[in-house]
């Protein structure tokens, strides 16, 4: 089930705006399945995902001298944790459009921290948390390891532009084997506050998205990104 963890931090304001940038196929999958896809933590492009910083690793190695399984446990745990990433920003991000969409097509889901918390449905045998990512120097700074979720809430400083909030699902208590990831139950109407269409998309693309959403009986507000609004001079 979704749990509160005093060690995992979030912005104080539940109305803090978050975004998810994705292509149309992933958006349709979300609407049709009413489930949110989460990637297995060790399948991300960043090879450091779910690992420890150097100072923490050195400490864990010392503890693992008499207990080799201690270190191995953390490696295996990466295969048990799935992540859904969201971007904190009051406004749309031009950089996020560039990174996560292609061919001038794609969408951005606008939500809030509070909506994410309400949207996540309880899952039997899964521990689920929502937390804000900390960006640190992996050569110098320490990641606590007294909480199994901490490695997944730290990233290198070079990723600070992501300003990431994560939904985390730990499947360790179940027999489920994750391949690329898993889908979790969500309340779609809570999850999605508004949809923005790619700023450089054609009009037919916006009409297509509107029609698809209407046919699936969702009532989201849909807007064309205002990053390409008319010049006033």
TrEMBL record:
The protein depicted here goes by the name DUF2971 domain-containing protein
